[in-house]
Amino acid sequence: MNKGLTIVIKQTFRSHFKTRGYWLLVLSPIIFAVVIGGIIFGVTQMQGNTTPTVAVIGNSQVRQVFIRDEKTLDIKVSKITDSQKANRSLAAQDLDGILTLQDDNATLTTQPKSNTINKEAFVSVLGNISRSQKATNYGLTAAQTQDLIQPFNLKSVVKQPDNKSTNGENSDMANYGIAVAIGIITTMIVMWYASMIATEIANEKSSRIMETLLAATSASIQYFGKMIGIFALAVTHLLIYIIAGAIGYVILQNNPMLDGIKQTFSGVTIGFSIYAVAFILISVALYLILTAMIASLINDNAQVQQAIQPITFLAMIGYMFSFIMTNMPNNLAIKILSYVPFISQSMMPVRLVTKVETWPAAILSLIISFVAMIVLAWFGKNIYAKNVLSYSDDKIMSQLIKNIKNRN
Amino acid sequence: MIQLTNLNKQFGDKVAVKNMNMALEPGKVMGLIGQNGAGKTTTFRMILNFIAPTSGDITWNGHPITQTDKQKIGFLPEERGLYQKLTIEEQILYFSELHGMTRSDTKIALADWLKRLDVVGKATDKVQSLSKGNAQKVQMIAALIFNPEFIILDEPFSGLDPVNTSIMMNEIVRLRDNGAMIIFSSHDMNNVTKISDNLTMLKQGEIVLQGGVQEIREQFGRTKVYVEGPFSKAELANIAGVTQINQQGAGFDITISDEATGHQIFDFVTRNGYIPAFSQQPPTLDDIFRQEVALS
What is the mean pLDDT of residues B132-143? Predict the structure, then answer.
């Protein structure tokens, strides 16, 4: 690599990496997550055991079934089997509920401070018991009974135009979660680092440091050096989160909530994860190039927000569409936008994981973004070189349009 | 040697530099003078390849200036700029590294430069804590610490007090004596006279005067006389060829139409013998500048 380029990359990286601002940026989401986690843990601890204790009265067979299914029903069956004792305990708020069984009927009595009892689960278990007993009375065999109480299986299948039937392995909630996560990650990184690179360039330009820098190196070395340096900071930022995530995973290995998350995202493969990360990184690079290009038109630091606002809006568009997309994946506009650089990163990975699109289409979208990145970098280099030492009173966008019109 | 040949620069209809020819030699200082907008900074920007000339050539030892050559150029821009939040050392390390100097060599040289330029503060001080004069010295160190072969200084003395101006001038002379080619612009003709070997005077992008400083002054003849003695302004004004007389302290500044008038003045003021002062000089650069550029 060119020595000058390496020096600029190192300087850009070093000068930000050592600042309190960078570490605040990196650590604040982790601190936020830890604080929220701590609060939730604290509240749960203060609340004590929330599993409701229920006395099952009137039918010892049913009581045995409830004891067997305690975990599924998320209850603790009380040792009390006597109705009067149970009512006293309920009045003393030692019990959360009394399930009183009489033939085909059952009554669930609770008190005002009872922990929540899953009534639907009770109805389901009691219904199965009732159907089994009735089937036995009708003289059905055990197999016939089992067959009778088997719930109807409704399978959800998406029919594709090419006649291939697909169904994503993830639940709708998981797909929605992936869409939101990719959208948030890209938008946040773009907002943080677009502002960083714009401030860097505006500062060097407005304070005339740029003249000293360009006396020793070329504009393209400064342009690429700064972008790679800031990009390396963004990658370091992500790596810190991956390491923090890995540490969290090891610590919370047996946590039921983590098991639930793992279960929910079981359809996400290593291949998909690499693809999504690659797409996020290429998109971040695209946005940084666009920002550096526009920042070269800034005259002073006061114009930074004005310059990066349209860029953050653009990042938000992709994020917004990712919400719409989960509801109408086959909409033509959504389909087209899945291939449009700057927006596709919020759409295509989700379409891939939900199997609305196939791998070749997903790779094509990634390649389009990559090619756009190369072309924009080359084009941006010329705009940067042309403007980084010129100071115009025109508005940023009108300067940009002039530059695009007069490319020489 | 740096050679500028038939150099022209136009911005739209406006001619910024017109047919400029100039040669800069190792161990020589070229002073570039002219009013604001005369084309001084544009010339520097073309040499540094910040902007391309409309026509003409700029060469270093016969070849166009390359990126490698640029590393050997020390440049002090007119509008000073430093990273306010970096320390002096961090700042100088970055700039010198870009010019191919190692970090260890820079650290050693920086201590020496800070001492020589009498910078108040330590290498670990942030630039934002420095006074304007000290920040300017740091900028000068950034431009010169790597011992450049070619030095461009755009208004190096602006904003400096006389003590700091003198320190800066000593450094420029030291670098010249070490063999560097130096070009600098200034509005202060006194400084230009003191350290320039050669001079280029610009007017609206065109060279109006060029050559050695003394040689240029001599071109205008020894038409300035200073005298002190027992005579009146009216007596001096009666001498033929005297065009202007101004009281200057204990004596008179006299402008004459030709060098020979000096003899007549000398004869008159010494007719009774000794006088404390008589000096016949060519016009100062200030006078020439006013005559050639500002007033015409």
Answer: 90
What does the pLDDT look like over B167-205, one tens digit per residue?
999 999 999 999 999 999 988 888 888 899 999 999 989
User: A209 and B99: CB-CB below 8 Å?
Assistant: no
Tokens 């019990």: give the residue. A95
**At residue B275, what is the residue type?**
I
B80 CB neighbours in chain A (<8 A) are 208
pLDDT in tens, A268-303: 777 888 888 888 899 999 999 999 988 888 887 788
pLDDT: which is higher, A141 or A225: A225
Decide: A111 and A96 in contact? Cβ < 8 Å: yes
- Which of B51, B70, B152 comes nearest A216 by C-beta? B70
pLDDT number for residue B246? 92
Nearest to B79 among A4, A8, A208 (CB): A208
Cβ contact B160:B132 at 8 Å: no
The token pair that represents B20 in the structure block: 């400029």
pLDDT exceeds 80 at position A177? no
> Is the four-CA dihedral A225, A228, A231, A232 of positive or negative sign?
negative
Contacts of A118 (CB under 8 A, 6+ apart): A73, A74, A75
Q: What is the pLDDT of residue B55?
A: 94
* A213 interfaces chain B, CB cutoff of 8 Å: yes
A208 touches chain B (CB under 8 A): yes
The Cα–Cα gap between A91 and A89 comes to: 5
Distance from CA of B59 to the nearest CA of A (A): 16
Q: How far is B76 from chain A (nearest CA, A)?
A: 7
- For residues B216 and B207, the answer to whether their CB atoms sit within 8 Å is no
Closest CA to A90 of A76, A118, A63, A109: A109
CATH class of this structure's domain B221-294: alpha beta
pLDDT of A276 reads 84
Decide if B81 and A215 are in contact by the 8 Å CB cutoff: no
Contact at CB, B142 and A215, closer than 8 angstroms = no
Residue A111 to residues A57, A77, A91, A116, Cα–Cα distance (Å):
17, 16, 7, 11
CATH class of B2-218: alpha beta
Query: What type of residue is A271?
Result: G
* Residue B21 near residue B59, CB atoms below 8 Å: no
Q: Does residue B146 have a pLDDT over 70? A: yes
Give the pLDDT confidence of A337-362 residue by residue, as tens digits: 889 999 888 888 878 877 788 889 99
Q: Chain B contact for A215, CB < 8 A?
A: yes
Question: Alpha-carbon distance A137 to A131, whole Å?
Answer: 10
Contacts of B146 in chain A (CB under 8 A): none
Q: What is the ipTM of this complex?
A: 0.82
Q: Chain B: which residues have CB within 8 Å of chain A?
A: 45, 48, 50-51, 67, 70-71, 73-75, 77, 79-84, 86, 90, 94-95, 97-100, 139, 142-143, 152
All domains of chain A in start order, with CATH:
53-149 (3.40.190), 170-405 (no CATH)
CA distance to partner chain B, nearest, from residue A177 (Å): 41
Q: Report CB contact under 8 Å: A209, B81.
A: yes
Chain-centroid distance of CA A75 in Å reads 33
Residue to test with chain B: of A204, A211, A217, most B Cβ within 10 A: A211
Q: Confirm if A216 and B70 have CB atoms less than 8 A apart.
A: yes
pTM of full prediction above 0.90: no
